[in-house]
Amino acid sequence: MNNTNRALNRTGILLVGLLLFVVGAAAAVAAALPDWFEQWKSVSASVDDASADVIANTTLESFGQSWLLIVIAVVCLVLIALLVLFIFRQGHGHTRALVTEKAPDTTTSTGGSVVIDGRVAEQAIQQTLDGHPDIVSSSVSTYLVKRTSALKITTRVRRGASPSTVRGFVDDTVTAWDSVLGREVPVLIQITGGMATKR
Amino acid sequence: MTTPPPYRRILRRETHSPRSGFAIALAVVLIFVLAWIGTESVLALLGRPALLVAPEDSLGSVLGLPTLVTSSGIIGAGSAVAVIGLLIVLVALLPGRRARHTGVVGRTAVVMDNVVVASALARVASRSANIDPDQVVVTIGHRTVDVTVRPSSGFPVDDARVLTAVQEALTTFELTPALRAKVTIEQKGVVGA
Predict the structure, then answer these.
(1) What residue spans define the domains of chain B?
(2) Interface subset of A 35-64, CB within 8 angstroms of B
(3) Per the confidence metrics, is the pTM higher than 0.90?
């Protein structure tokens, strides 16, 4: 329920994969065909000659080295920064406010706003759920999905528990909470099990 | 029944992998490679000895590849790189389904692990056959569920009854996509169960 940019993840993976595939396949095919292999050798040789000129033309007097090295270092640094940003972009999407209500008209009211913290719902719902015999443990968290707050209720159930029974109980709890809150927020129920839930 | 927009997005996200782990792993590898290239460039610029290979030498060996390595070596290495690239492309394009099923969307939306469905069905099947839940193995696929029952030796199990019980349970779970049940009674029974 987090807002990881999944399209970006897949695009990045796709680009890396395509790059490896194209480079690997091109090298293999060129090496397999004698004509292409000779062509490759001659192109490499001419690039090698040209690169010597490029290095000579870009040499800095003070360092005795090509300034292209600085360009390479800077480009590497920028790419590293972007990749680190990309890694820290994963996940996120938690929010604190469950409901934010602004006064519509300041002439008829004091113009204040009301914010209901997600933890109010989290604690109230969790307390009710943990009383059910089929539920081992539960956790409730508030997420921002498409600019609206939504609750995610995760319940770990005992082995053999009927998911429809558990769902019915959580639904009842949510309905009770709706009447307390006075409005409906989207709710996702996740039912999980596992080794720790053995009787 | 059509699914309201926020639920459609939420359920799609809960039943498919975000590919975060793989993307992060690739990014970390790229960061190491870039850090190495950058460090070598700076060291070469300052006239210091290289960590592994100086930039000028690595450029030379890349360009000299066809003359330094035999063509069969390039074919082998190139094919290996291409296959790795193809596998990575598959990771990017395959849906990456998680072992979960969703229920009917009402006031709330629900997503449940296949483990939960399997253990619930195992209990239902074992009750209908009057045996221990450990004698039932339930395997859940995307659209199918296989229930394998090992009867207690000397007490035959009615597979039609087990199938009916499992199908009734599946009806109450209201899973999407719906699961088709198949019951197999093993020929060998369990002694002393």
Answers:
(1) 5-93, 100-185
(2) 37, 40-41, 44-45, 47-48, 51, 55, 63-64
(3) no
Better pLDDT: A62 or B39: B39
> How close B66 comes to chain A (CA, Å)?
6
Question: Which CATH fold topology does B100-185 show?
Answer: Alpha-Beta Plaits (3.30.70)
The whole-number average pLDDT for the span A155-167 is: 90
User: What would the pLDDT profile of B156-184 be if each residue is shown by its tens digit?
Assistant: 888 899 999 999 999 999 898 899 999 99
User: In the predicted model, what is the mean pLDDT of residues A64-77?
Assistant: 89
Three-state SS string across chain A, please? Answer: CCCCCHHHHHHHHHHHHHHHHHHHHHHHHHHHCHHHHHHHHHHHHHHHHHHHHHHHHCECCCCCCECHHHHHHHHHHHHHHHHHHHHHCCCCCECCEEEEEECCCCCCCCCCEEEEEHHHHHHHHHHHHCCCCCEEEEEEEEEEECCEEEEEEEEEECCCCCHHHHHHHHHHHHHHHHHHHCCCCCEEEEEECCHHHCC
Task: Give the pLDDT band of residue A107 (cuts 50, 70, 90).
Answer: low
Of B41, B110, B119, the CB nearest to A167: B110
Residue A198 has pLDDT above 50, yes or no: no
Q: Which domains does chain A have, with CATH numbers?
A: 6-88 (no CATH), 97-197 (3.30.70.1350)
A-chain CB neighbours of B140 within 8 Å are: none
Residue with tokens 């394009």: B93
* β pairing state of A187-192 and B109-113: parallel
